[in-house]
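re: that complex we talked abt at group meeting.

here r the seqs, copy pasted straight from the sheet so there may be weird spacing, ignore it
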Amino acid sequence: MTRSYPEAVTFPFGRPGPFEPPEGLASLREERPIASMVYPDGKVGWLVTGYSAVRSILADPRFSSRRELLDVPLPFALMQEMRTPADPGMFIRMDPPDHTRYRKLLTAQFTVRRMKQLEPRIHEITEERLAAMEKAGPPQDLVREFALPIPSLVICELLGVPYADREEFQRSTAVLLNLESTVEDIHATVATFRAFFVRLIAAKRADPADDLLSGLITNGDLTDEELSNIGFLLLAAGHETTANMLGLGTFALLQHPDQLAALRADPSLIDNTVEELLRYLGIIHVGPLRAALEDVEVEGLLIRAGDPVTLSLPAANRDPARFSDPDHLDITNPATGHMAFGHGLHQCLGQQLARVEMRTAFPMLFDRFPGLRLAVPAEEVPMRDTMSIYGVRELPVRW
Ligand code: HEM
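got the structure back, here u go
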């Protein structure tokens, strides 16, 4: 017997305003926090928008992250190619015990000591970008000059990419993030990255230094393929996310002058500001994705073995059942408990690094350019709302 889903929704993309969650998610969350949803291939699964349901599914090992089991609610060819087991090292798309083995090795490298060591470098990298912007003069695209290069250079720093190779690294990264890149461009760039990481790993094996890749080589028995995929995963997971937080976060602060003024008046509000922006902006547009390994009842609904599940972090982080006045950006209101970095086993490995980047970059930007403002009307800022990570494509600014 086939099940029928008369009320199945489709994944909503369009956002009614630059800082709003996708259209219709608020009413869906109120009426059906776990709603059946039609995926692009016609399969029916679930879209989960309520905070408590999202949190309990992310914490539940009966929901898998294995890539070969996942369905992607995006109609793009590249995404649909993904139904094969994750490559060795790509632990974001694995379950225990494979996930556990890699995660342990990586957690040992994301130490407080290493994050502390990176802080002055993040400061220098930000300073260099701001000096370059100032020299070039207004107007400038803040995404190209600031939001994209900072996280990419920080990942170079983390992995120990030599200075001579950083331009090539950034050029290739830009292709991956360019919305106009074709599937062929992306495949070719992924191959370039693989070759790049193979060379880098050989160099680190020969001459280990005090960086993450060297640490993984010295403290584990990972193959070159695993190491190269881990390098690529860190880039993929850590670059676009942080870049969009910096770009969209700046746009949001410029559009909320009272909030920016409060931050300028009390710089100690920066930690709160970063958490509140993470909660409010909801840049993880699509996912996390999961698949039920067995029949599971969640909040009275039966999710059957094999059903694909899409969790909406933007909707969950605006749930009035969890946050007071959730549709207002308020940097004085501590946004504890948000799930911008996910929850459970796969909760973001790089969250402390991302926080240090944002806590450094936002204040330095607004200090350097006290008159920072948009160079085009706000309605003309091009948004990225058809991608899995939401943000601004460009942010033209003057100062
Ligand atoms: C503001 C920036 C960031 C956001 C919003 C973000 C968000 C997330 C989310 C929601 C997940 C969970 C995915 C899931 O459950 O399937 C995740 C996982 C992950 N993130 Fe981040 N992330 C950010 C920055 C970073 C950075 C800077 C790095 C590393 C350099 C990083 C590395 C990872 C890795 C490796 C995972 C997989 C963890 C696992 O599967 O155990 N992320 N991130």
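couple things i noticed - Confidence is low (pLDDT under 50) at residues 1-6. Residues 65, 91-92, 103, 155, 233-234, 237-238, 241-242, 245, 283-284, 288, 340-342, 346, 348-350, 353-354 surround protoporphyrin IX containing FE (CB under 6 Å).
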